[in-house]
Structure prediction request, 177 residues.
Amino acid sequence: MTTLAVVTIILGILRLIASVLVIGFALGLTAVAPAENPAPVANRAQDFGEIGLPLLALLKVLLILVIIPIAIVSAFGGLLLILAGIGLMRHWRFSRVLTLLLASLGGMLTLIYGYALISEVQKVPADWQLALIYLIGLLVHGSYCLFAFRVLLNRKNAAEFPTIPAVRLASGAQPSV
Prediction:
């Protein structure tokens, strides 16, 4: 159980650090000012056809509307992982459920990384650096998911967490189920 708690805290810290770095990098990119004599729009945004928007403006919109919110959600997930790991060490009842929930989300991320990996490998030519990132994500999230479920669903480990005491009615009779 302690190993799972430590792994959960380490993953939470790594996720939090990575998320803060992504947010800082994205905010730094949105603060970049355009050049004094910008090139004509056709030269700056050739891939965007007739849109007529400069590439920097499109990048800022992408960062603000997509990347930064995802990084904020990821940072919140890192904080939850740290809280769950501390709770596992202290045998808090909610931490077992929280860790199972986070491991389930990790399992869903495993499926997404697996799909992205298969899609990337099938491309011609494949970007093997991106495929390696997907493989690492698949292995990290998949391993954590399997490890957390294996440890927390074990009867012996589940018994370490306190259960809710039975509610007594005013008459002294036990509630019927």
Summary: Helices lie at 2-30, 41-44, 55-90, 93-122, 128-152, 155-158. The longest helix spans residues 55-90. Residues 69 and 95 are 26 Å apart (CA to CA).
